[in-house]
Amino acid sequence: MAKKKKKKPRVGLPTEKEIVAAMKKAGRPVLLRELYHILNIPTSDRKEFRTLVKRLTKEGKLVHIKGKRYGLPEQMQLITGKLKVHPDGYGLLEPEELKKPVVYIPPGRLKGAINGDKVVVRVETPTRKRPEGTVIRILERAKKYIVGFFYRGRRVSTVIPEDDRFPFEILIPPDATKGAEDGDMVVAEIVDFSPGRKIPEGRIIAVLGDPEDLSTQIKAVIYKYELPFRFSRAVKKELKEIPDEVREEDKAGRKDFRKLLFVTIDGETAKDFDDAIYVRKLPKGWRLYVAIADVAHYVRPNTALDKEAYERGTSVYFPGTVVPMFPEKLSNNLCSLNPEVDRLAMVAVIDFDREGNRRQMKFYEGVIKSHQRFTYNIVRDVIEKKDPQARRKYKRFLGMLENAAELCRLLRQKRLARGSIDFDLPEPEVILDAQGQPEDIVRRERHFAHFIIEEFMIAANEAVAEYLTEKGYPILYRVHEPPDLEKLKEFVDFVATLGLELKLPREPEPSWLQMVIEMAEGKPYAYLVNTLLLRSLKQAKYSPENIGHFGLAPECYCHFTSPIRRYPDLVVHRALKAALKKKKPPYKLQKLEEMGKHLSERERIAMEAEREALDRVKVMLMKHRIGEVFDGVISAVTAFGFFVDLFEIYVSGVVRLVDLADDYYVLDEKNHRLVGRRTGKVFQLGDLVRVKVKDVNVSRRHINFELIEKIKSPN
């Protein structure tokens, strides 16, 4: 009888594909020891293999079932995905595999899972159009902390989450209240939400304070989005080793630009100055100097400062405050180009001809001195309004500012001619009173002085990106993919209801979008068209692959000009320093790929947090304006009413159908309008209306309007 041939032990761990293939071949759930045998795992590798299996189980690629067996989800009617919980209590599972259908989960089958959790669901009625299921395992909690309102009871206290996607109360034992007062806004941590419990138990980890206070609302956003807002001991220790001012030895070997009339131009309340500019007229054109704070000199790779900045990814700006990427010692002092002090900078020197074409570019590690801190409004008074008093006061800088204005006009004209998109959307500015509470929200003024800085920063970003690309240094590009044609088709159909007839382009082109913006300019619906067009675009991101920037339309583009508040800019600075010294690139492509994903995600989170903080301010303001009348435009139409964006104040609210007492209104979804059954009266996208603030729900952030009259239709 022939001897059975013994398998040779494999070298290295199996891949995920090999594990899945082996389990499919087995055709049943298997024990861990069976997997050792099937995949021929040697004893020396089994500990590492167990770790791999645990990771795959945590990710939902494998499922650990009773009897210590492992199975494949798809062979057991199991689906892994992200849970979305509706305010009414039911859940919808969005599967990780795109081809699988969304699964409906009744309220009683959530088994302690909450909105955003990554879960495994067993599908129990797969034949229905929308399958139903039950949560059998929570793989990953989406939320560590929940922001809510504290209510003290005689025996037990509760926290009611402010987010209505958490349709439950949290019980707080007497010894876990952390001194919270009735009605306080708090942060709770769930400590027990086991499948047998209908109501979770938790503890208070932070008392935020009075919900009517702006600082309380900002803290709520910080906790909700889990923004790191405290610097570690290691960071504080490193800060002590960094000098308070620029030392003489730090200036050694750098090009000295201190005699040039560099200036900073920023907003009235700015405290961190990333950039300074200087423009000189040449016989055949202009020379632009853009100096950017040399953060990389002080923040070395893999230090505590560097690691914490990377985790944050970006500074997050709220009304009256900021969660900075770097501590104040760097962001507001040593790495801020403050007036009349020496500062280390990376300096881009770019020559342009009379037509605004770039002729040459050079980059330096330099030392500069800002000779004046200008605000946008002062520059406007000097350049546009030609205010005699302002021009006398800043006579020393007149020539330089005139040069800057002339070059800006050329660069802007050239950029728009190549198809770069220039959205004219109002940016909100929150006005705070003496106590730091919101007083008003106004449209942030954008005038020619803003264009000067915008154009020069774009020029510097393009120049650095092209230089490092030519030199072969991998960097994080700022990329913006073209929109999907399907999205543009939706937009074209959408604006047709406004009377704007457009022909869909064969391929998405920035020039087509710019043409649409120009067509809508000056029309009552211009704001709406700009907003809808912006929503049809993809979001810009960071990537080591240069796939272009659709919105700005350059050959290649990166972020170089704000290393105080954006980590990708610091990455580019390090690459530029290495290139200037002919050293090896500081980052490999694989590392940059990972960084690009993380930093793009951090940017998205920051944008969402800033948007929500603004929404909270709007509600706080409107609570004190109940009964006031405003004009606005219908910005969205739904089955329950229509949304109105106000003109005078940067706020949006809803007119509900229940408050339209003159008729029964039916949604005409195709034409984005509500039509009265009896009267035939129409409310459609783009209509101008006059409304009164009816009521405001601060905790739910709802603003309800009452219709006074329809002013006119967009057509």
Brief rundown of the structure:
Its EC number is 3.1.13.1. The chain is an alpha+beta fold.
Write out key terms for the chains shown:
OB fold (Dihydrolipoamide Acetyltransferase, E2P); 6 domains; six-stranded mixed beta sheet; 33 strands; RNase_II/R; nuclease
Radius of gyration computed on alpha carbons? 30 Å
Structural class: alpha+beta
**Proportion of residues in β-strands:** 25-35%
Task: State the helix count.
Answer: 17
Low-pLDDT sequence parts = none
**Average of pLDDT:** 90
What is the helix fraction of residues, given as a range? 25-40%
* Structural shape: globular
How many β-strands, per DSSP?
33
In angstroms, what separates the terminal alpha carbons?
92 Å
Biggest β-sheet description:
6 strands, mixed
Counted up, domains total 6
GO molecular function: exoribonuclease II activity; RNA binding
Keywords: Cytoplasm, Exonuclease, Hydrolase, Nuclease, RNA-binding
Subcellular location: Cytoplasm
Protein name: Ribonuclease R
Compile the SSE list and pairings.
Elements: H1 16-26, E1 30-31, H2 32-38, H3 46-58, E2 63-65, E3 69-71, E4 78-85, E5 91-95, E6 103-105, E7 118-123, E8 133-140, E9 145-151, E10 157-161, E11 170-172, E12 185-192, E13 201-209, H4 214-224, H5 233-241, H6 248-251, E14 255-256, E15 262-266, E16 275-282, E17 285-293, H7 304-312, E18 316-318, E19 321-323, H8 328-334, E20 342-353, E21 358-375, H9 376-383, H10 388-393, H11 398-417, E22 428-432, E23 438-443, H12 448-471, E24 477-479, H13 485-496, H14 510-520, H15 526-535, E25 541-543, H16 567-580, H17 589-623, E26 629-638, E27 641-646, E28 652-656, E29 665-668, E30 673-676, E31 682-684, E32 688-697, E33 702-712
Helix pairs in contact: 4-17, 11-12, 12-16, 14-15
Protein name: Ribonuclease R
GO molecular function: exoribonuclease II activity; RNA binding
Domain S1 motif: 627-708
